[in-house]
């Protein structure tokens, strides 16, 4: 990670409406309306019960994917389980972009969510997201790698040969789809965006992968967890793709709730994740295809598990300030 920490690249800010200011309290990098008295780097629940939210229907959103409706079915069993545990109706909210998901939680329209690796810091600091779990295998092994892929028939064999080529990224909030590969290209290869290579933004890992398979892009930086799942369900032909780089492992999607969810309800939401039976479920069928398999929810802390991601953000001068 040392190679990332010497960088000074253009930052990406969380561009949402200005929040109301809270009374002075410890908050670290959190937005001004949050407090962090216990120094765990996530927003504390409000001390005033009048500020808690206790909705009749919990709204859940999974990180943006190529077809949100496919994942409505994947998550249905789990959401029905959450209904039993919480005593609330739970509705799946399909989101089309990371920005839309962040804004939905910040505006109070989203209560429980899975934010992708790169969006977690923005969600935590701008929207009051409190991540507490992620998927792992039954032994607690988790993670994915960023890979740079090219069309199988491409003459490109190394990153250096991407000079002058078009590289597809997903969005500026994505860790593996933008921040980590940008830092890598600049620090290890001296390659600057739109100077040494052309950039394209596909919006989603799925779009980047299909784009490379169809020769729309010379290369793409993607999360191999998404790639593996797409190959497993025949959404893309692996014979049309070739990897020329694989990174260290990163944490996967973080799941959690909004900071001002009524504490008793928040505890039930956590219980719903940790008591879900994966055996024979649609979640296992979909996420068990990853390597390592994602077949259980394990407890995590943002402070510990997202340290490597925050390091990359720091290297790229990413701002967590809400504007």
From TrEMBL:
Keywords, ordered alphabetically: Signal
* InterPro entries cross-referenced by the UniProt entry: PhnD, Solute-binding_3/MltF_N
Q: Which GO terms describe its biological process?
A: transmembrane transport
Matching Pfam families, A to Z? Phosphonate-bd
Q: Does the record bear Signal in its keywords?
A: yes
Residues in domain Solute-binding protein family 3/N-terminal? Answer: 57-290
Query: Quick check: keyword Signal in the entry?
Result: yes
The source's domain of life comes to Bacteria
Q: Where is the signal peptide?
A: 1-22
**GO CC terms in record:** ATP-binding cassette (ABC) transporter complex
Q: Which NCBIfam families does UniProt cross-reference here?
A: 3A0109s03R
Family of the protein in this entry: Belongs to the phosphate/phosphite/phosphonate binding protein family.
What this protein is called in its record is: Phosphate/phosphite/phosphonate ABC transporter substrate-binding protein
Q: Which organism is it from?
A: Verticiella sediminum
Lineage, please? Bacteria, Pseudomonadati, Pseudomonadota, Betaproteobacteria, Burkholderiales
């Amino acid at each position: 990670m040392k190679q990332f920490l010497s960088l000074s690249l253009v930052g990406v800010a969380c561009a949402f409406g200005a929040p109301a200011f809270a009374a002075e309290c410890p908050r670290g990098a959190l937005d001004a309306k949050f407090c962090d008295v216990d120094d765990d780097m996530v927003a504390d629940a409000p001390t005033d019960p009048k500020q808690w939210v206790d909705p009749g229907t919990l709204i859940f959103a999974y990180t943006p994917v190529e077809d949100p409706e496919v994942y409505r079915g994947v998550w249905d069993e789990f959401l029905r389980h959450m209904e039993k545990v919480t005593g609330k109706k739970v509705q799946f909210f399909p989101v089309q972009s990371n920005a839309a998901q962040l804004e939905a939680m910040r505006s109070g329209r989203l209560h429980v969510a899975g934010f992708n690796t790169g969006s977690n810091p923005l969600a935590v600091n701008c929207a009051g997201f409190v991540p507490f779990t992620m998927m792992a295998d039954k032994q607690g092994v988790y993670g994915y790698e960023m890979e740079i892929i090219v069309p199988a028939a491409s003459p490109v064999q190394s990153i250096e040969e991407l000079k002058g080529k078009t590289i597809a990224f997903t969005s500026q909030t994505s860790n593996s789809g933008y921040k980590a590969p940008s830092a890598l290209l600049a620090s290890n290869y001296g390659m600057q965006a739109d100077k040494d290579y052309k950039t394209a933004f596909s919006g989603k890992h799925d779009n980047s992968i299909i784009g490379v398979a169809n020769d729309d892009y010379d290369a793409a930086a993607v999360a191999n967890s998404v790639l593996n799942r797409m190959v497993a369900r025949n959404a893309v032909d692996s014979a049309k793709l070739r990897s020329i780089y694989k990174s260290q492992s990163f944490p996967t999607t973080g799941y959690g709730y909004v900071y001002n969810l009524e504490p008793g309800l928040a505890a039930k939401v956590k219980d719903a994740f940790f008591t879900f039976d994966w055996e024979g479920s649609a979640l296992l069928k979909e996420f068990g295809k990853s390597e390592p398999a994602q077949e259980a929810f394990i407890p995590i802390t943002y402070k510990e598990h997202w340290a490597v991601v925050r390091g990359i953000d720091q290297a790229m001068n990413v701002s967590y300030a809400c504007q």
